[in-house]
Amino acid sequence: MKIYAVIDKLKTEYPLQRLCEVLIVSRSCYYDWKNKKTYQLNSVSQSMEDKVIAVFKANKRRYGTRRIVAELGHQGIKASPYKVRKALVDITAHTLPLISVHSLPAFQFKVYHF
Hints:
This protein is mainly alpha-helical. The protein has 2 domains: 2-34; 43-93. It is 57% helix and 0% strand. It has helices at 2-10, 16-22, 27-34, 43-58, 65-74, 81-95. Helix 5 packs across helix 6. The longest helix is centred in the middle third of the chain and has 16 residues, at 43-58. The N and C termini lie far apart (69 Å).
C-alpha cells in the first residue's frame, strides 16, 4: 500500500502517531504492513468474488445472498454466505443508481371532507 510507504518515509520528520491520525490509519495496521503481516486478497478469494458477481449479474441483479450460495452450490462451488454477502455489498455499493425524490412521480390524493 502506498499510504504506508508514505508514512514510513515521513516518520523521521513527524511523529508516527500524528501521521496515522492525519492519514486515518491505525498504527497497528502500519506495523502489520511494516512486518509484512498485511492481508492480501489471494487469487482463490478473487475468483470466488468474480463468480459471485457473475451469478448476480446473470440473474439480472435479482439474486440475494441465499440464492447465490445455492446457485454456486449447484455449480459445485462451496461458498460462505458471509463472503457472498461481502461481495454483494462491494458491488452494489458502486453500481446501484441513487433515485432522487424529485424524480419520483407525484401522487394525487383525494381529500374527503366530512
